[in-house]
Amino acid sequence: MPTPKFILELREKIGHDLLWLTGLTGVVLNDAGQVLLVQRADNHRWSLPAGILEPGEQPAVGLAREIQEETAIEVEVDRLLSIESLPPAAYPNGDQVQFLDLTFRCRPLRQSAEPRVNDDESLDVRWWPLDTIVDLADLTARDHVSIRRALSPEPQPAYTT
Fold first, then answer.
1. What does the alpha-carbon distance between residue 24 and residue 41 come to, in Å, rounded to a whole number?
2. How large is the average pLDDT for residues 138-142?
3. What is the side-by-side order of every strand in the sheet holding 34-40?
4. 31: which residues sit within 8 A by CB, 6+ positions away?
5. What pLDDT, on a 0 to 100 scale, did the predictor assign at position 1?
6. 52-62 pLDDT, tens per residue?
C-alpha cells in the first residue's frame, strides 16, 4: 500500500520532521487457536497486522480496513487491548514518526477464511498456532504482550499512568 495521501501532503509542508500519527494493531484470533500474522516486506519479520488511521476514520473501522487490505480477512473488532505511545522512529528516507497505537482483539467473520497476501506490504500471511509463536523469534516483545492481552479475560485496556 503506498503512503497515504494525507501523509504525503503533510510531508510537503513539514519535510522529514517528526509526525505524530495514530497507529492501529490487530490481534486476530480464530476458533482453531491460531493468530493471524503477516511477514512484512520491509524487514521480512513476522508481525501482527497493523496500519495507520486515516483522518476522520473511526479506529475499529480503520483496523478492519487495514486487516482486509493486508490479508483479505474480514474481521469483527471485539475489544480494545491497549493504548500506548510508541517511541519515535525514522524511516530510511529520513521521515520521523511517532505513533499513538491502539491495539484491538479481533475475530474473523468467517472462521474458515484463508488469508493471502493482499497488498505490497507483506511477503506472506498465515494463521499461526498459538502454541508455536513462543518460538517465533521474529515477533517483537510488544507483539507477544499484545497476544497475551488478547488471550486474557481482563476486559480493561492497558495504558500507562
1. 18
2. 90
3. 46-47, 34-40, 122-129
4. 111
5. 57
6. 999 999 999 99
- Residue indicated by cell numbers 507483539: 143
Backbone angles phi, psi at 52, to 5 degrees: -115, 135
* Amino acid code (one letter) for 50: A
Within its chain, how far is the Cα of 77 from the centroid? 13
Give yes or no for residue 130 having a pLDDT over 70.
Answer: yes
Enumerate the H helices of 53-134 as residue ranges. 59-71
Q: What DSSP line would sit under 17-63, residue for residue? A: S-EEEEEEEEEEB-TTSEEEEEEETTT--EE--EEEPPTT--HHHHH
Query: Exposed, middle or buried: residue 4 (CB in 10 Å: 0-12, 13-18, 19+)?
Result: middle
Query: For residue 56, with 0-12 CB atoms within 10 Å meaning exposed, 13-18 middle and 19 or more buried, which class applies?
Result: exposed
d(CA 58, CA 100): 14
CB 38 within 8 A of CB 26: no
What nine digits make up the cell of 126? 498465515
DSSP 8-state class, residue 158: B
CB count within 10 Å of CB 5 equals 10
How far apart are alpha carbons 106 and 61 in whole angstroms?
Answer: 12
Phi, psi (degrees; rounded to nearest 5) at 143: -65, -40
User: Is the separation of the CB atoms in 30 and 107 below 8 Å?
Assistant: yes
